[in-house]
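User: I'm new to structure prediction. If I give you an amino acid sequence, what do you actually give back? Let's try with this one:
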Amino acid sequence: MASYIRQRPAYWFQATATLLFLWGVLGCIAFYWHASFDPAQPSDVGVWERAYHRALPGWFAYDYAIAVGAALLGSIAMLRRSRSANILYVLSLAAVVVQFGYVFVFTPLLAVKGVATAVFPLFILGVGIFQIWLAGLATRRGWIL
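Assistant: Good question. You get back a string of structure tokens that encode the predicted 3D arrangement of the chain. For your 145 residues, that looks like this:
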């Protein structure tokens, strides 16, 4: 007999975990667009954006992949009620901090595009923190084991 009792999660938890899964899918789509962007191909992207893409270091794409991949896998783990969601979300947030830390510290993005450029990355950071909090809450309540 198992020494634990698996609690049934609240409806709002399942709905939120599903939304986080969809958020992870959107992140993977955004990564695909980033990885498949070719600055040499003609498009409606400006000169600065082309130069920005060329200047990104090689490790940036790997970090981006880790950020979105770990978030998606964490959401799948949460839906499957697995405790591995905790570590996957922490890994994702760490990769997000490295990614946007590099972008805002080592590129002239804020100077060229303005402070409003930081709004969406701050939202992404907030979602990452929320994911970790939710996984912790679910662990404490016995919803994920």
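You can read the tokens as a compact description of the fold. Here is one thing that stands out. Residues 11-36 form the longest helix (26 residues).
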